[in-house]
Each structure stands twice: as C-alpha cells, then as structure tokens.
Automatic annotation (TrEMBL):
Localization terms from the record: Membrane
Family matches, as CDD domains: EFh (cd00051), LPLAT_LPCAT1-like (cd07991)
Keywords recorded for this protein, A-Z: Acyltransferase, Calcium, Lipid biosynthesis, Lipid metabolism, Membrane, Phospholipid biosynthesis, Phospholipid metabolism, Transferase, Transmembrane, Transmembrane helix
Region (Disordered): 27-46
Gene: LOC103331941
Residues annotated as transmembrane: 85-113, 134-154
Recorded superkingdom: Eukaryota
Pathway per the UniProt entry: Lipid metabolism; phospholipid metabolism
Similarity comment: Belongs to the 1-acyl-sn-glycerol-3-phosphate acyltransferase family.
Organism: Prunus mume (Japanese apricot)
Protein name: Lysophospholipid acyltransferase LPEAT2 isoform X2
Transcription keyword on record: no
Record bears the keyword Chloroplast: no
Lineage: Eukaryota, Viridiplantae, Streptophyta, Embryophyta, Tracheophyta
Length: 527
C-alpha cells in the first residue's frame, strides 16, 4: 500500500463511475416544528425575500459544510461495565498509595526546585550547571509522579536527533502527562501560557525550565515569544525548546491545526508523537475535569504510553482544521443554560474560519454569546422569534428579510455557523465602516456629536415605518451602552460591530443617496 500523508483519507472513496442514489426524507414533525417556530418556516420556504444587504455590495454568502469530528471529546467520560467497576474497587487501596507517592514526589521536587532557583537572578542566560544538577532531583521526582499515575514503563520508538541538529521539539498534546514526561526526559525550555506561572507548586517548577510565556491573544506577546524561541534555539548553551503547536489538548484521534510559533524561527525541528493505547479508559484531557481524570488514572492497573520521533505515520490520525478557538466555543456552549444535545456542534473549525473570515477566536466567542442568548433549541437551532428578541426587531417583512438572509438553507431556523458566517460576511463588506460613519453623520444635528432618541427613531422608521415609541426605545437602548440617553459615535460603531446585521435598519438612508447605482458614491459622501 502506498504511503499516506495527513491530507489523505484513511479509507479510499468508491470509484466515481459507480452509480449513486440519494434519498431525501422529509419528516412531517420537522415541518410542523419549523412552521410553528415564530411562524417563519413556511414563509421562508415559499417566499423569495430580497437581499437586505445589497446596498453594501453583498450578493449573499455560503456556509462550508460542517464536520462531525470532535477532537476534544473524551470517549470514556462515564464508568461503564462490570469490569471497570471491579477494577476501580480493587485499585482503590493502591490508589491511596499512589496518591501518597504523588504528593511526596511533588513536594520533594518543589523543594529541590526552590533550592536550585535560590539566589538566581540572571535568568536571561542558561541555568548554571550546578543548579541543573540539583534539578535532577526534580526530574527523578517527575518520573515517580508518572509511576504513581500508572505509567510504570513507557515505550519509545526511534532515536531523537541531537540538540545541535534539531534544537526545537514539537509534539502533539493529549494530556497533562506529556509535559511531565518531557520534563523528565529532556528538561527543555517550554513555551506556555502566562496563566501557568500562578499554579501552586507547579508554577515554580515551570519557572526552572526558563519558560517562554505567551499570551495567545496578544500580538506583541506572540512576537516576543517567537523572538525568544529564536534566541534560545540558536544557542547550544540552552536546552531544547519544546512546543505543543496545537495549542491545546485533544483526544489523540485527530491532529488539529498548528500555530506557527515553532516554525517561524526557521530552525530544524524534531517532531515527537505521544500515544495512549487503551481499551477501557481514554486518558485524554478533553472535555473532562482534571480531578476525574486523575482519579481514573490512579485506579488503573497500568496506563500505556508510547512516544515516537515521527508524526504523521506514527499517529495515523485524521487532520482537521480545528484549533484552540474551537475549544473556547465548546466550553462556552457547554456553560450555556440551554439544554444542548451536542455542544460540540458549535465548533466551526476555527483555522478555516480565520483564513476565510479574518476574525479572531475571541470575536467568534462573542458572536456565540449573542447566539446563545437567542435560546437555541437542543439541536442548536434558533427560530425567528428568538432571533428578533435578541436583536430587538419587530416582526415584519423587513425583519423576515434579515432572518432569511442568514437562513441559507431556508429551513425556518438558523445554526450558529450560519449566524457567524452571515454576521461576519456583512461586517467585512468593504463599505460597512463607511456606511456606519455616513449614517451617524447624517443624523447628528447641529454641532452635537451624538444621536438623540428622537433622531434615532427618525433614522430607522424608513425601514420599519410602524415602530411605536416603546419599540424605538428598546432599539435605542441597545446602542446607548452607557445609558446616558444619547448615542455617541463610538457607541454607534461598537454596537454595529457586535450586531452587524442591524446596519440594514439604515439602508433607506443610504439608498436615498443612490449608492446602489455607484459603488464609489458612499466613499465620496464621507470624504
């Protein structure tokens, strides 16, 4: 069989000349469900709505297909089967001994590390050799910690390249076990989140590794981290630099998108993979608490671990476009008050989304927060009435046009992925910012630099003529963030940036200036 790369499917597809039969089954209950969710499902099926964002130059958008892959799911969250319960019962006394060993090893390692760090101030340079010798005590303690977790032996495949050939090591990240293993095996300099420094006991041990801290949400922090990686990798006096380019833990069944920090410096890289073969207990630190994972490890006869100095061929897994951003979305969805059947359905493969839409993970989480406030059903779908409630729109033809724009499948409900792609599609239109500025300047009266509630009502009534005073007030409060009874330019822009679909409310104002006939007219108006 020919070798496969990470982009190759594990199972070959059938030849294209084979006939295909596709059946579509319409469930009557789904039809009824759509028809009663805000009475919009039937309308979106039979009516053709105009594009409410054509004035910005939008001709609609498409949503990429979703994957069923969940790289963060731990597959043994629940203890099932008589064998597992018996094993836990038998191992409970052993677990107590292991817990004592774990605590003693951690404490001894902490004391040794404090001793090695005592009085050391020049931390820009490599740790002196006599301090490194003291750190061997901590390294032995970490091997005892691995033993306490049931890793009595660890199978290794291949031989790593010398440090002078490959100064950077990259590894997949499945559990909290790998950093412990690499500390014992390599005592490397690691790249880690700033939050790790404040961890009790562990934070001190991490500092002894001359850790390179990085805030993944700060461009300056990421730039500094790359500079430090380059500086330490270029000098043989420093230990190897270790990175987990996936940026988070997965369940080991997928290889998610890599961050580029390890590769930008341009040094040779030693890839290492870690696998945890198992039958009854998935050791991955996915969507599971640390305490529960540690308990399960303590109550196993033995936990298997393998390392290999290669990546694609040794893992034999599927590559996905998921990233740490998807884990953020998953955690946000899991914390929702809505009873969601599959929180994982809110993952959107953020690596692809970033390349297509040019938004950050934090921006995607903000849009998810807005979507969750629309009270999605257990399937993760939002109906027409929930959509209107959060955007504070009145049920009318104009509002139906906005909803139908997002409802690309014309099913009478929308998913988070549709809401995200639709909202960002509008936000990223080249004329969006100019449109916001033009609308604001149009309704600012005299020398004022704000819009009053009366002026706001005048600006949106051309789109929805029969709005009453209470409905105008509700929308006004959405824009008036500080509640001072007026909308500043910053408040106006911030609200539309968070709710880009609402720019359609001001389309009559812009259309009256004939911007639909001349694509450059809007820019000319602002200049």
């Amino acid at each position: 069989m020919a070798d496969k790369d990470l982009a190759s499917p594990l199972i070959s597809s059938a030849p294209s000349d084979h006939p295909h039969l596709i059946l579509t089954v319409q469930d009557d209950t789904d039809t009824d469900h759509n028809n009663h969710n805000g009475n919009h499902g039937s309308n979106s099926t039979h009516h053709h709505f105009r594009n409410p964002y054509a004035f910005l130059g939008s001709d609609g958008f498409t949503v990429p297909g979703s994957t069923t892959a969940d790289p963060f799911r731990n597959h043994t969250l629940e203890i099932r089967g008589l064998y597992e319960w018996l094993k836990i019962g038998i191992c409970l006394p052993i677990a107590l001994v292991r817990l004592v060993l774990f605590g003693a090893s951690l404490l001894i390692g902490f004391v040794a590390t404090k001793l090695a760090l005592q009085g050391w101030k020049d931390k820009k340079n490599p740790m002196p050799k006599w301090r490194c010798r003291i750190m061997w005590i901590t390294r032995v303690c970490t091997r005892c910690i691995l033993f306490s977790f049931g890793y009595h032996w660890i199978r290794r495949k291949g031989k790593p390249a010398p440090r002078e050939i490959a100064p950077i090591v990259v590894s997949n990240h499945v559990s909290f076990i790998e950093p412990i293993f690499y500390f014992y095996e390599l005592f490397p300099t690691i790249v880690a989140s700033e939050s790790h420094d404040s961890l009790p006991l562990v934070g001190t041990i991490i500092r002894a590794m001359q850790v390179i801290y990085v805030n993944r949400f700060s461009a300056s922090s990421r730039k500094h981290a790359v500079s430090e990686i380059k500086r330490k990798a270029s000098s043989d006096r420093f230990p190897r630099v270790l990175l987990f380019p996936e940026g988070t833990t997965t369940n080991g069944r997928f290889l998610i998108s890599f961050e580029l920090g390890a590769f930008i410096p341009g040094f040779p890289i030693q890839p290492v993979t870690v696998r945890y073969p198992h039958v009854h207990f998935d050791q991955s630190w996915g969507h599971i608490s640390l305490a529960k994972l540690m308990f399960r490890m303590f109550t196993q006869f033995h936990n298997f671990m393998e390392t290999c100095h290669a990546m694609a061929t040794s893992l034999n897994v599927v590559q996905t476009s998921h990233s740490y951003g998807d884990l953020m979305l998953l955690m946000k969805a899991s914390q929702s008050k809505s009873k969601l059947e599959r929180p994982a359905s809110y993952m959107v493969e953020m690596a692809t989304v970033k390349s297509l839409l040019h938004i950050s993970s934090m921006e995607a989480v903000d849009f998810l927060d807005k979507f969750l406030s629309m009270n999605p059903d257990p399937r993760g779908h939002v109906n027409y009435s929930g959509f209107l409630r959060v955007l504070r729109l009145k049920a009318c033809t104009f509002s139906e046009e906005i909803f139908a724009f997002i409802d690309v499948e014309k099913s009478g409900s929308i998913t988070f992925k549709q809401f995200l792609f639709g909202s960002v599609h509008v936000l990223k239109q080249p004329l969006f910012r100019q449109a916001c500025e033009l609308v604001f300047s149009e309704y600012v009266s005299g020398e004022n630099d704000y819009i009053s509630e009366q002026e706001f009502g005048e600006s949106i009534r051309p789109a929805i003529p029969d709005l009453n005073e209470d409905e105008v007030h509700e929308l006004f409060n959405l824009f008036d963030a500080d509640g001072d009874g007026r909308i500043s330019k910053d408040e106006f822009w911030t609200c539309l940036k968070k709710n880009p679909l609402l720019i359609a409310l001001f389309s009559p104002c812009l259309l009256n200036k004939d911007i639909s006939q001349d694509g450059n007219r809007l820019v000319e108006e602002i200049v």
